[in-house]
Amino acid sequence: MRGSFESEMTFYSFCPDHVPKPIAWGNYESDTTTWFYLCDFHDMIDDLPGPDDLVPVIADVQTARVAKPSNNNFNFLADIHNDDKWQVSWELQFTQAMRRMFSHEEQLRGKDDRLTELREDLFEKVIPRLLRPLETSGHSLQPCLIHSDLCPSSVMVDEDTSKVMIFDSCAYWSHNEAELGTWRSTQNKSGPPYSSEYIVKMGISEPVEDWDDRNALRYILLLSTMYPDDPKFRTMAMWEMQRLVDKFPMGYEGNQFVSP
């Protein structure tokens, strides 16, 4: 609950007109196992804002040049504890978070030998191949704050002001493109039209040719972890992992973007 509060406080500081102001968090004196989170009340229309309305708000947050605080007190993706200790590169940061994600998924679902093999190939070949070029050969990244769970249940319209309202953030400091991972889901109505508008506003990091595979990498295991009782999500994750491993069998050494 503290993570949720700190996440919302930080996101509110970036776009106060579009986030209900956090007030407090804690637990009940009469029942210490029951927790609460309080924020300003907004009467909202249960409808997803259009891409032209939502994407500019996200772009403004991501392009704000604010120094990253030395201590992150929010580190949860939904109810998943995220390892977000600061690293010197996005490749290392993402690898660290994915190791935690795989560990959590295995605790929930049990060990799978094929998944273990794919996981090692992902860490040794696919992640270096897709993420290292973002910060080599003259390329660089500017970390930014992302919401990381932009779905219809966390983005609505204020009935009184007609402003886009964003809440239930799972914020962390990231490569900006990681925001689009949840939009890849076929179950998420904020899909291709929103990604297309985002690209218009924010562009694509170099190398552009890796865009779709980078996007797949960020989304690869989240649903399997969030819905551990549904076997299809682990199957989908392994299928996508196998596709990426087959596509990049040489890892970073097969990277065509390395400068001579």
UniProtKB/TrEMBL annotation:
Its EC number is 2.7.1.172. It comes from the Eukaryota. Pfam families: Fructosamin_kin. One of its GO terms (molecular function) is protein-ribulosamine 3-kinase activity. Transmembrane segments: none annotated. It catalyses: N(6)-D-ribulosyl-L-lysyl-[protein] + ATP = N(6)-(3-O-phospho-D-ribulosyl)-L-lysyl-[protein] + ADP + H(+). This is protein-ribulosamine 3-kinase. It comes from Apodospora peruviana.
